[in-house]
């Protein structure tokens, strides 16, 4: 059986980039101070990861924390608030996203599934959907929690950075994503957007529980 190709993203190394075998990656990272690199199963995942910067490695403590019940930390969490998350069966794969009340998990909205997308796209769409929905119903100061570093980065930079559509022609998803990006650049909502502390609190309340 032929060995499956892996792709290696080097964010911090002699020459940052994407490499198609371990030996090339090793040459760029071995002995390099604070080298940052990671392997991916597909070139598409590697390209998207390279664009969005180093991925924080989940520590054993963080994995244990993911099993916690966030309600034990409710005094640390801003409520009332809305939490958003996405689920993707494969990456890319079938994707859906939703927004829930942070304290009660009551669902505000749920969208999908889309036939094929990435988790990053889903988490970004969830964030923009939450912002537009809350502004539509007049909740213009309600905080929103997301656990997605990428979605928050796209929001801060007002730019979606994905290579998904280079290989996947999905006019409907492209239309939805362009509409979300247009809304982001045409509006200035006041809702605080907060990073969910997964390491400390466990999974975000909007998590689909499929890990």
Structure description:
The chain is an alpha/beta fold. Helices cover 36% and strands 23% of the residues. The protein has helices spanning 22-29, 43-52, 60-65, 119-136, 149-157, 164-167, 171-186, 198-201; strands at residues 7-12, 17-19, 36-40, 82-90, 93-101, 107-117, 144-146, 193-195. It has a five-stranded mixed β-sheet, covered by helices on one side. Strands 2-1-3 form a three-stranded antiparallel β-sheet, with helices on both faces. Strand 1 (7-12) and strand 2 form a beta hairpin. The radius of gyration is 18 Å and the shape is globular. The two termini are 29 Å apart. Residues 57-66 have low confidence and may be disordered.
Strand order of the largest sheet: 6-5-4-7-8
Based on Cα principal axes, name the global outline: globular
Largest sheet: 5 strands, mixed
Please provide the ordered H/E string of secondary-structure elements. EEHEHHEEEHEHHHEH
Task: Determine the strand fraction and express it as a percent band.
Answer: 15-25%
Mean pLDDT: 86
What's this, in brief?
The protein has 211 residues and is an alpha/beta fold.
């Amino acid at each position: 059986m032929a060995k499956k190709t892996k792709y290696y993203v080097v964010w911090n190394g002699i020459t940052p980039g994407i490499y198609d075998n371990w030996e090339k990656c090793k040459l760029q990272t071995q002995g390099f101070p604070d080298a940052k690199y990671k392997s991916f199963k597909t070139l598409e995942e590697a390209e998207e990861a390279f664009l969005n910067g180093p991925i924080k490695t989940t520590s054993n403590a963080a994995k244990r924390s993911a099993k916690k019940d966030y309600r034990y930390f409710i005094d640390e969490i801003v409520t009332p608030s809305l939490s958003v998350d996405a689920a993707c069966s494969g990456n890319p794969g079938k994707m859906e996203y939703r927004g829930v009340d942070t304290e009660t998990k009551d669902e505000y909205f749920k969208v999908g599934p889309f036939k094929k997308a990435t988790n990053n796209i889903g988490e970004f769409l969830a964030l923009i959907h939450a912002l537009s929905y809350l502004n539509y119903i007049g909740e213009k100061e309600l905080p929103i929690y997301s656990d997605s570093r990428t979605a928050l980065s796209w929001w801060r930079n007002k730019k979606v950075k994905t290579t998904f559509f280079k290989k996947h022609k999905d006019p409907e998803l492209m239309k939805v994503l362009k509409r979300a990006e247009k809304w982001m650049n045409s509006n200035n909502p006041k809702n605080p957007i907060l990073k969910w502390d997964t390491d400390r609190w466990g999974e975000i309340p909007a998590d689909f529980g499929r890990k």
